[in-house]
Design goal:
Distance between the termini: 25 Å
Shape: globular
Order of helices and strands: EHHEHEHEHEHEHEEHHEEHEHHEHH
Radius of gyration: 22 Å
Strand content: 5-15%
CATH class of the largest domain: Alpha Beta
Oligomer: single chain
Number of strands: 12
CATH topology of the largest domain: Aspartate Aminotransferase, domain 2
CATH superfamily of the largest domain: Type I PLP-dependent aspartate aminotransferase-like (Major domain)
Strand order of the largest sheet: 2-8-7-6-5-3-4
Structural class: alpha/beta
Number of domains: 2
Largest sheet: 7 strands, mixed
CATH architecture of the largest domain: 3-Layer(aba) Sandwich
């Protein structure tokens, strides 16, 4: 059986162009970028070339790019780096602001700050999954040290009003971090135009291998380090640089893919499912969202059961965040949007990527229709809901 991949928000395949460059670089660039000899300087040139490419794609200076091991480290470096430094500099308790729909890399970082004595304002979202800028303004205090709100949600694809939040943060003089892991490489991102102070990306979401990411740190923003060692990355991230990974990240970020065409495929998938499967609904704002993501609720069907049924038919999808796979709890994102636990458990995420085609989408629609009919026939919940397959 042939299998098709519709789980790009969890991880994307390495792009062919990146894979070729990666193989060449692994054989040719093995020096330590901190060494002064020929091999070290070759590695340094490769690293700084990658940094220039990433900076150009994000609209910033190359000196403002810090390479990391991925989105989680970039988020943690931004959050702990700013919040902990504020205590050391100001000598008073911290107040920090984030939303209830963040990725666990942000949620759990804020939970740790709370254990360290910080006060947290958890911003709600509306039924569409969006944060209110007015709620951000109302949350700010004289001792607010940081705001962190994601760009695109990993489960629904919903985009937040980042530029407007950044404007409110600037007016109050509060650093603003944005988790851009699901947006970077998929939509046009210019950190200057957005007005953010820190912005996280991760290569495995857009065609680079796992294990490499980057953090934009606006000039003038100071960070307390997470790692202690040498003065790599201008003292902001200790550890021998992943030169090959940085090059792959830059190569993937520089690829020009027609994401508008992918949005049309996503819309085709949604329209087909909503038309052919009764009792279905799209979760979240359908206007302000990433071009590749759809989160659909199936009445009287467990999301995990649908994921398994589709996998058996050759289609890989997800019931939520890959970092929460195996969890029995309903999605915290969907609960924050006002869905009931049962509704949240009945939802499935479809996330497309450059390799998907119209033929694959049409096949997936048929597989969803057949799977829904089968699952509802064998589910006792269907008898109570009155939904037919």
């Amino acid at each position: 059986m042939q299998h098709f991949y519709f789980d790009h928000n969890a991880a994307s395949p390495v792009a062919p162009e990146v894979l070729r460059d990666l193989a060449d670089a692994m054989g040719e660039v093995y020096g330590n970028a901190s060494s002064i000899h020929h091999f070290g300087q070759a590695a340094r040139r490769r690293l700084e070339g990658a940094r220039r490419t990433v900076a150009a794609r994000l609209g910033c200076s190359e000196r403002e790019i810090v390479f990391s091991s991925g989105g989680t480290e970039s988020d943690n470096l931004a959050i702990f780096g700013v919040a902990r430094l504020s205590v050391a500099q100001r000598g008073h308790s911290r107040h920090v602001v984030t939303s209830t729909i963040e990725h666990p890399a942000v949620l759990n970082a804020f939970a740790q700050l709370e254990r360290e004595g910080a006060e947290i304002t958890w911003l709600p979202v509306d039924r569409a999954g969006r944060v209110s800028v007015e709620d951000v303004r109302r949350a700010l205090r004289p001792n607010t040290a940081l705001i962190s709100v994601m760009h695109a949600n990993n489960e629904t694809g919903v985009l937040q009003p980042i530029a407007e939040i950044a404007e409110a943060a600037q007016a109050a003089g509060v650093p603003f971090h944005c988790d851009g892991v699901q947006a970077g490489g998929r939509i046009a991102v210019n950190v200057r135009e957005l007005g953010v102070d820190l912005y996280s990306i991760s290569g495995h979401k857009f065609g680079a291998p796992k294990g490499v990411g980057a953090l934009y740190v606006r000039k003038g923003v100071e960070l307390a380090p997470l790692l202690y060692g040498g003065r790599h990355e201008r003292g902001r991230r200790a550890g021998t640089e992943n030169v090959v990974g940085a090059g792959a990240l830059a190569r993937a970020l520089a690829l020009d893919f027609d994401w508008a065409a992918l949005a049309a495929l996503r819309d085709r998938l949604e329209a087909g499912i909503l038309e052919r499967v009764p009792g279905t609904m799209v979760n979240g704002d359908r206007t302000h969202r990433a071009p590749n993501t759809s989160n659909i609720r199936f009445e009287a069907i467990e999301g995990e059961a649908m994921v398994i049924a589709l996998d058996l038919r050759g289609y890989a999808v997800s019931s939520g965040s890959a970092c929460s796979s195996g969890a029995v709890e309903p999605s915290h994102v969907l609960l924050a949007m006002g869905l009931s636990p049962d509704e949240a458990r009945s939802s499935v995420r479809f996330s497309l990527g450059p390799g998907n085609t119209a033929e694959q989408v049409d096949g997936l629609i048929e597989a969803v229709q057949a799977s829904a009919a089968h699952l509802r026939r064998i589910s006792p919940v269907t008898l109570l809901s009155g939904v037919a397959g």
